[in-house]
Amino acid sequence: MTTTTSSLNTTTTTNNTMLTALAHQIEYHFSHCNLRKDVYLQTLRHLNDGCVPLSILCQFQKVKLLTLGVDAKQAVIQAIQARSKHLRVYQIDAKTGRKVNHDADATASSHRSFSSKNEIETLLGVSLCIDM
Questions:
Q1: Measured between alpha carbons, how far is 105 from 16 in angstroms, rounded to an integer?
Q2: Any alpha helices (H) in 1-132, and if so which ranges?
Q3: Backbone angles phi, psi at 41, to 5 degrees
Q4: Phi, then psi, of 90 in degrees rounded to 5
Q5: Residue 128: is it exposed, middle or buried by C-beta count within 10 angstroms (0-12/13-18/19+)?
Q6: Which tens digit of pLDDT belongs to each residue from 19-69?
């Protein structure tokens, strides 16, 4: 039993470390310092109501490295929701490229927990957005 408990604690610690590192990496991508020179991110944000689609963000090399062996979309959402004070998860309308919720519900939905992989995959428009 001790081995199992120790193994679970190690897994939890590793997961927490990964989520923290992932949140820091994503916050760097959205930092003023990086955004000033990153034309690609500027363009994506311009086309998507200030957001970057989650599917694209998961393809960034450092994000891929940090999420090896886990569901990248789920990990990014967890990292943002649990570790970031500056980024929020919003649903983006695929037709308009606009945030689905612009009112007070947007704050509540930005803290929403996505419980399953299927739920994330059905939200094709989920994007990350800086909430300043």
A1: 28
A2: 2-29, 32-37, 39-47, 54-57, 61-66, 72-83, 104-110, 117-122
A3: -65, -40
A4: -125, 150
A5: buried
A6: 999 999 999 998 889 989 999 999 988 887 788 888 899 999 999 999 999
